[in-house]
Amino acid sequence: MTGEKKKKKRLNRSILLAKKIIIKDGGTPQGIGEPSVYHAVVVIFLEFFAWGLLTTPMLTVLHQTFPQHTFLMNGLIHGVKGLLSFLSAPLIGALSDVWGRKSFLLLTVFFTCAPIPLMKISPWWYFAVISMSGVFAVTFSVIFAYVADITQEHERSTAYGLVSATFAASLVTSPAIGAYLSEAYGDTLVVILATAIALLDICFILVAVPESLPEKMRPASWGAPISWEQADPFASLRKVGQDSTVLLICITVFLSYLPEAGQYSSFFLYLRQVIGFTSETVAAFIAVVGILSILAQTVVLGILMRSIGNKNTILLGLGFQILQLAWYGFGSQPWMMWAAGAVAAMSSITFPAISAIVSRNADPDQQGVVQGMITGIRGLCNGLGPALYGFVFYLFHVELSEMDPAESPEKGAKLNMANPTDESAIIPGPPFLFGACSVLLSLLVALFIPEHNTLNLRPGSYKKHNNGAQSHLHSSQGGPCEGKEPLLEDSSV
Question: Where are the compositionally biased (Polar residues) regions (predicted)?
Fold first, then answer.
């Protein structure tokens, strides 16, 4: 096993050296300097900072546009976006291997940010374009491939950590800034500012970002064929049953990430318009939970992995997730939301631990295949989770009363649930309780995951995949760290 690792390190050094030689020979397209992680960091920060500014205005526009079935429509909008992202991600990844990363960074950022100015022009078109933008809502996939192109394997976790920290920084700061500007100057200024930042991001990609994948390093230039297997979003899911351990891991991921994806799509709307949080309180909540999540994944995770082991860390993370979902399900007071938020931050250790156990047990040439399965399942959950949450809110009549503009949540007024029932009085947040039951099943499945077991997916899977190994080389290397960051799925923004 040690010999294989040494061979793999030598191979990675050779690939990186070849890239540097090609770049020096004139293979670098337009851009400022050589490709670096900092180019990727700036692109991510600007895109999600622009969207973070819109947290407060978006909640207001959502309720004004769909006053009768706010949660249901919110779930359907995010569900369609997530499902389209899941279907398109493999094709865009394969095309970026052939045509380069820069053009697809430009494409994904442009279409992801295209709905922003429509918020004030036409709310209906705004939500329609948000749903359709899921086709290109895969910026992180391209960014991970960009980083993999320019780093060696032992540098990759640090590079992904920097991208993760940048994303978290934008998430922590921008909602608070947007809430302040919205309160002081109105939503129109916030939308204009977010549009300007999105345009700045597009200009930065056009002018400053160099191509990380020189033409000589691509499998073939513009005429390279793209097979259906490369573009098929269900290709990795069909290989799930070939290994019992992989099957257990994938079931665990599905049952735990399905409620998490739904929670991301509706939680801030729930806090503001059912629990009664003001815009400023929602922004502060996002900041605090974001900071605690960073601490959990950087400090607490390492301590737990060393002290109690990989599998027990997964079980502990799932336990925290059950607790926070149950607390959100039964809680009706603001202080309960804050306490559950701290527990939610601790539950963010689950996916890094799952990624680590997969990375440790899979053979070097199987990493991309196994991680691709997990990423595919998470992408599917991003489509199903929001729709499921919206539907459960609708079934339990958790809808919003008519709002008087003078008594909007900005003034701190707490809204009552429309058509209250006995169930809604006892369980203010039914979808969160359903989510807790789903994660409980996930915990029971995770108990059977072996701590040490070599994953084997070779029969009928990797041999086919290997025909396009060169074209998958860069995109698959980003896989092992894909589950490392909180809220990293583009469609959950």
Answer: 467-478
